[in-house]
Amino acid sequence: MSLSNFRPTPEMAQDIKRELVNAGIDANTIPMDWLEAVTAATFKWVSTRPSGLKEMSNLLGLRWIEGRTDTNYQIMDTRGIPTEDVDPKNIYFVEGCMANDRMHPKNLIRVNEKKKDQCQECGSFVHCIEEVFNHRKDTTDTYCNACLAQAEDLKARDRGDTQMCVACPDITCVHNFIHLRGPQ
Question: What is the pLDDT, as a whole number, of residue 145?
Fold first, then answer.
């Protein structure tokens, strides 16, 4: 396997050169072809050697979880057809967390579920509930974001954010835009 499959992009090579210059190395002493070759060799080592994978995982603060001996593992092709069996001692699951553009150990991230309330329009229990004054009924109603974005009241509709629904994992609301896109 040659190094050409591991060549850095021009932007990446420039960023690496900038890091070297920031570390005090004279930019004139760094031939770009050598920089690209050393970077490609490093990328190949990281992605094809167990020692490279482990070293990179340590640098990124990733945790390795070994396969379980009471479980069968198979590698699947893109169609979902098994192509090869994997011995449990030869499989690792890697987990980590990137937050605010930095790597963090997963155990240092606190995860709390957001409070969920019921939408009076669709009945879903979701975190994006807003209270909206209903002028026709002279009451305050609760709407999820998707129902709010589809509301008959134009003032209420302006408060709905269609981009919020794109990233939402809850698809129980019939007004959620995922239903309009159809099967993926």
Answer: 84
